[in-house]
Specification:
By secondary structure, the chain is an alpha+beta fold. The protein has 3 helices and 9 strands. α2 runs antiparallel to α3.
């Protein structure tokens, strides 16, 4: 049996590709693949969103890789990939794409959820939202 692999763990300014992330976790041993796609929505808590800007600490990429490798080391997965976008995003743009393949679907779902939840909670990426009412808000600041 081959070991598990972190195929992607990156922070990018370029638009994200679901197909790229999905292809990166495909493997003959994988019986299930879970994919999460986070997009910029047009409202947040009832307020209209015009656009947002993501910025990241210089350590964000290495923290993303460390998180994926830690989840990878649990032995419950076949392959893991996660890419988060930074820069200017508009409604409908992809902000994060994560995928986990595992021998069984339950592990794929569980690890994918942990990957996204822990990334959002621990990786230093900040969101600056601009609203239709002229106000703005920073999310994720320490």
């Amino acid at each position: 049996m081959t070991g598990v692999t972190v195929t992607l763990a990156e922070i990018r300014e370029a638009p994200l590709s679901v197909d790229e992330v999905l292809r990166s976790v495909a493997a003959p041993r994988a019986g299930g693949i879970c994919v999460f796609v986070g997009t910029v929505r047009d409202t947040d808590e009832g307020r209209g969103v015009i656009h947002l800007d993501y910025s990241a600490h210089p350590l964000a990429a290495s923290r993303t890789r460390e998180l994926a490798e830690r989840l990878d080391a649990t032995g419950r997965t076949v392959r893991i990939a996660v890419v988060h976008r930074v820069g200017h995003l508009t409604v409908g743009d992809l902000a994060i794409v994560a995928a986990v393949s595992a021998e069984h679907r339950a592990e794929a779902f569980e690890v994918c959820r942990a990957l996204v939840d822990e990334l959002k909670a621990t990786v230093p990426i900040w969101k600056h939202q601009r609203f239709t009412d002229g106000l703005d808000e920073w999310v994720g600041l320490p």
